[in-house]
Structures are given as C-alpha cells and as structure tokens.
Amino acid sequence: MNSSTSTAIGNTQKPVSRTSTTTQWEFWGRVMVVPYLLIFFIFVVYPVGYGLWLARHPDSYERLFEDPIFYRTLANTLFFLVVGINIKMVIALVLSGFFVQKRWWISILSMIFILPWALPSIPTILSVRFMLNPEWGVINTKIFQLTGADGPNWLNDPFLALCLAITMHIWKSLPFWTLILVAARLSIPLEQYEAASVDGATNWQKFKFITWPSMKTIYLTSTILSMIWTLGDFNSVYLLTGGGPADMTHVLATLGIRYLRLDQVDLAMASIVVALPFVLPLVFFMMKRLSK
Amino acid sequence: MIGVPLLIWTLIPVYHLFLFSISTKDSATSGHLWPVHPTLQNFEFVLWQKHFYLNYFWIQMWNSLFIAVMVGFLTLFISTFAAFAISRLKVRGGRTVLNLALFTYFIPAAFLAVPMYKTMGQYGLLDNQWALILAMITIASPYSIWVLKQASDKLPLELDEAARMDGATPMQLFRLVYLPLMVPSLVAVGTYSLLLAWNEYLYAFLLLSKENSFTVGVALGNFLSADDSPWELLMTTGLIYALPPAAIYYTFKRYMVSGLTAGAVKS
To answer: What's the ipTM?
Structure first.
C-alpha cells in the first residue's frame, strides 16, 4: 500500500489510529471493486481487443464492401434508427403526458402497458410472426373471410417486413421510454402549471413553455441512448423476419451474427468496426452527460 | 380515447399467444378469434413432455431458472460491492471504475456478442452454462452499479462518519448500515438482472448448443428450424415461459419502476 496517501490524509486528521482506519477503508474499497474489474477485463476488454485484432486485415473490409447485403443492411439500420427511434420517442413523449395523469384506471392501464417490456421477446415476437403468416395467420384469414381477397404477403416484402420489425421494436421498448419520460414530467413543479392556468394558458402553451423546456435535455439523452441500444437489437429483426426475404431486412446487429454463424468472424467484426465512427461519438456524448 | 387502442395494441401479441395455447392446431390456423372448442390439451402436451420437441421441457425450465437466479445473485454481489466502494468508501480510482462500467453499459449487446462468443471458445466455456451466466453478468452489472451508485449517493454521509467514530470496520458499515438502507434498490437491481437473464435469447442461443443445456428461449427458437413444427405447442410453451417474468415483475413493480427509471437517464 502506498504510505504517501495515508500520511497525507493522516496529517489532516488525528494521528496514528485515524491513519490506520483510512488505510483499512482504502484497502476494503479496493478489494470490493476487484470482482467487477475482473469481469470487466476478462469479458469486455479482452474480447473487444481480440475482436478488433481479428478485424485488422484490410482484406476483410474489401470483402465486406463487396457484399451487396452490406449496403442494404446499412440503409436498413439507418432507417431503423432515424425513422423508427424518432417515431417511438415522439409517441413516448405524447403517452407520458397521458400516463402522468392521476386516475385509477390510468394506473391500471399503465400496469398492463408495461407488460411488453417485462416479457421475453421470443414468444411475443413469434406470436406476431404467426399472426402475419400469409396462409394461416389470423390476419390474412380474417381478411379473406371478410373480403374474399388475399391479404398482403406481409413478411415477403422487404420494406414492409422492415417496418413491421420496427413496429415490433416499438411495441417492446415503448413502455420503458414512456416510463422514463413520465418520471421526467413528474419532476416538473405543479405550481408552474397552476400559475399558467390562472393566466389562461392553453394546453399547447403549457407544453411549449413549461413541459418541453424542462424535458428537452432528457428527451434528447433518451433518444441517443435508445439509438445506441437499438443498434444492438437483434431480436426484433431476427425473430420476425430472420433477415429475410433474401437477406434484405438485416440490420448491423443481425448481419454480424449472420457472418459469425457462417464462420466469417473477421467479416462480423469488420461490420461492427465500420459502425464505430458513428457509435463512439454518441457513446462519449452519453458518458459526458451521465458522469457529470 | 387513447386508452382503448393502447390496451389493444399492448395485448394483441399476448392474446394471440393465449389463443393459440387453448386452440387445436386446426382451429388456431383458421382465423377464429376465440376457439370453437377451447382445450387445455396443449398444456398437457407441454407439461407432460408428450412431444419430441418437448423432451427436455422441464430441464430447460430448470436451466432458465438456474441461470437467471445465478445472474441475479452474482450481479447483485458484484455491483453492490462496487457501488459501496465507489460511493461510500470513496476508493481512489472509483470514478474511473464507474466510467468503465458506463462505457460497457453503452456497448450495443449484439456487437459485444460476436467477440464474446469467440472469447468464450478460447476460455473453453462454450456449451457450458457458466458462459451464459458470466456473459449476462457482464451485461447486467454496469447498469446495476450505476443505479446502486446513484441510490447510495443519496444516503447521508453522517451515517458513515458516525459509524467511523464508533470504530466500525468497513464491512460492519456495509452489513449493518448500508445493506439495510439499500434494500429497495437492491430488489430493483436483482429483479432487473434476473429478468434480463431469463429473457435473453441472443447470447443463450450463441453460447449453448446442447438440448439439455438450453434455456426455454433457445428451445423455442429451435422449433422454427423445422417447416412443420407443432406451432400450437410452441406458443403454449412460450406462454408458460412468459409467465414467471410477468409474475416477478408485478410482485416487485413498486421497487422496479422507481429504482430503474431513477438511474436510467439522469435529468
């Protein structure tokens, strides 16, 4: 143990006995962070380092850029993030205004509304996948019974399938972000709204001048965090479309795993490395925001 | 009214799951919104393992449970220690440890899965349930540390000073003062990691490859590989698999909502 710290601290406090307590506290402090540091080095640092090493050959990138699926995947990922996440966050913002109301039936509804977040993805997404089955899914069977016409072949149209995967993602993660924004709304002092009501402000004016100014930072942070996490959302796409039809609905998360399963791990890592210039700035922005 | 569409939107996939589970295959695939002859036969097939897809159903349920409980317990252990050391003992370098954890929290899960899979192979852990347990701890602990650190920063410093004055050792402070005060957050974090591990699909299907070491989630995914699987049994198994997390969530809802939203995004 370094004696310099303990004496430095010891000087400002009472001598001998205090010095030994400080050292003891520092000692236990170190011991207690060790388990996490072990996990971090063995299962984060080493794998990430090894992964980057696997992706060191320019050759991997050339092959990646020659793969037509890759460009489609990039476009899909961008569409998923830019369109999907923004739609989700706007809905969450609106819904948070609804759930923040204190009525008994709204609190019951909010308990049910949270369900998608707590349930595992695989049964619920497969359930939707079966609903959309063109031959025997309940949606197309109903369409046929009601109109006599065949329903659309939902998951066979790449764009429609991607939109449905985004819908699935929204279904799953909307409750979480709504809760976050409800918490943000609850921290706004009620007096501000009361004062605004006295002055005859409309609901829109209340939102514009009270709610939004105090929520916009958390809204922006949530949007960015959601974008980072959505890059890792494998389930919504894989379980609904499997990347199909003809590998047209992959996103980076599923493409990496696809290469991995084809035993092309260098391509898998290369596809991730390509995303880093986009992800890392967002991550550092988030770290600066959260570790203030 | 916004409530009714919201209710329908939320419940459709769940209701469809339920509908399948009480229908015969013919009825489930002919567009009925309520089966003509509701039946519990599917549950009998699943619970008594009467189909070759379901030979390991109870073992797989046990696997899911074992993995989830281990992840919940160990994550709690690791992250409570770390949060206590950073927030209360003010260990030197604590800030850095917290930043490392935050950084991990921001790595998209599917991105880490690729190198994690290769590394687990090197460690000789592939096919071993501990690979999944350790991977899930890696994913769950950063958020847990973050939430617990936020919560423990709110405890008054005078408590620690009083304990120090009385000559308490750090471990006594931890056991007698810190843990009792942190119970709500500990419940939130433990439940969060438990649910995360129970619900995980990607890591489970990458890291486990034997039918008798699968979690239920992986087994469900495997139904898909055949063209003419017993879909109604798949859906019934899925419903049963989805019940424990729902029950756990509702039991600990009080702790979870406040505990987790408080830490997720700092305003």
So the answer is: 0.91
